[in-house]
Amino acid sequence: MSEHAALIAPAAAEFAGILRGIGETELAARTPCAEYDVRALLNHLLYWGPWLEAAGRKAPPPEAATGEAEAGLIGSDWLDVAERQTARLVEVFGAPEAWQGMTALGTAQMPASVVGDMVLGEFVFHGWDLARALGRTVDVAPEAAEAVYASAAAMGEQARSMKVYGEEVNVAEGATTFERALGASGRNPGWTP
């Protein structure tokens, strides 16, 4: 899957553009992820980003003093922190070697390509989540849509059992690849705030 390395930078650029459009008053907006408002979803991204980066570098995970819900990572500088984290993930996962061999995400050993696809999914799916929460659209390249669909379809049952994805959403006949990817990841492509 190292060919997906080329998809990381464009997906991250679209994601970063969405982040820059989030104002203070929008942090409480609902998202398609039922358990997250915008603030909590940003906290989720900032919490797990260092874990993904460490896995891409095949380095030990960061030490976590608290769990995600208690982390409280959305301070006045959250956008700067998020942009730097995004840039580091692009640096790591934009390189084909990050996708090769095995790595660990926390204590779980897995193929590095699975973690790379998680990063791509974070940018694409959570970018869509944030954009929809704000009533905006997101531009997903056809190649990225294919990649996240393949990953969501392959990992769907396991992700649902781990409560990472919601129940699969049936999409309309003739749905786009990205709409099928959203459905496979437990998202309703027609969701509105």
From TrEMBL:
Q: Which domain of life is it from?
A: Bacteria
InterPro entries given in the database record = CHP03086, DinB/YfiT-like, Maleyloyr_isom, MDMPI_metal-binding
Outline the extent of the Mycothiol-dependent maleylpyruvate isomerase metal-binding domain.
9-131
List GO molecular-function terms, semicolon-separated.
Answer: metal ion binding
Return any one Pfam family short name.
MDMPI_N
Q: What is this protein called?
A: TIGR03086 family protein
